[in-house]
Amino acid sequence: MASSPAPINLASSLLGGSPTYKMACDQLYEVAGVMGTDAGIIGRLAIPKRSLVVAVPIRMDSGEVRTFVGYRVQHSITSGASKGGLRYAPHVDLGEVAALSMWMSWKVGLMNLPFSGAKGGIACDPTKMSRGELERMTRRYTEEVLPIIGPRVDVMAPDMGTDEQTMAWIMDTYSMKVGYACPEIVTGKPVELGGCVGRREATGRGVMYCILEAMGELKIKAEGSTAVVQGFGNVGSVLCQELFQRGVKVIAIGDRTGSIRDTQGIDIPALTRHVAAGKELCKFPGVTVIPDDELLTTKCTVLAPCAMERVITADNAPRLDCRVLAEGANGPTTIEADRILAASETFVIPDILCNAGGVTVSYFEWVQDLQQYFWDESQVNDKLRELMLKAFRRVRTQAKELNLTNRMAALSLGVNKVALEKAKRGLYP
What we know:
This protein is of the alpha/beta class. It is 46% helix and 17% strand.
């Protein structure tokens, strides 16, 4: 192994022994062992550059004052402004946010974007909060992290539980502090405030580009193929629509309300209208409700986990029955499950490649805001497709030339880019 385990032990103790963070570190050290990366640099990459934990007190609609815990982790600042989403979810903790920030570093490195990795979150349940409560929480969180964010310092974007409106509140709060409109402080905001057309659909659309490229390599036709998608939020819903439009039958879908299946293919436009009307996915008429643990093991051509991390484990990995695993979520496959899949014929499109469409179009939005020159949607989609396919082919070339899995190939490209930049910049002082 190229590096001492001491940095991992230190990082794990600092981050509460988070299994998600340990998984991210294990991946980093596996890359180091394969690529022979400098031990000192790997030690620096194992520990986030900056981690901020803040109290976020707000007055609830009831008049009660409640304090939430917020996080912002900047894994690296080597390659440019740190970039990463902000998630609102009950399970958010420092270890999870740190792991996501590390994966973002490798993702932007793989995509050759001038960013470093970051992530943020608040431990809360946004589905149980009013719009007013969410606004007050978002604005107070922005105030608390103000010392470490900026358009050339750290740029946030939507993630689980947040959306365009969340970004608009952050932009407004920051702009009021600096005294002028600053749209480039966040990405994924409304188009009316300097957002980028196609940004909301970008992650799901990027997953679709990767799936079609993998199917082309495997000589599988889209028409008549089947797909199972876990998650029907921003990523999963868009992916379902894109696959449906190309003749792929989406036969099973799950979200936090339950899982459904129809072997003849689910009517995605009708399901989209159903969910948009505020109805639960599992109450969509004409389908079979299935146990959640059957969703990922349903036989299909393409399996796309687009919700949570660590859902494919050593327990269910042997029972997956798909030809292509497209990781729309961050870190959906554990280290143990990955080893099982590596010995199978499953074609894995790893998360840092597969779901990179969101940060790629966030980059387009950031550039447009800085220049105050905006593109039309066809330009955005064409450029997104170009960069996604270029990264996909780089990963496949690396995998074939070095006899690596797709995951190790993608991680090696991302990690080595950041490691090389650290080596070139040197160590200060």
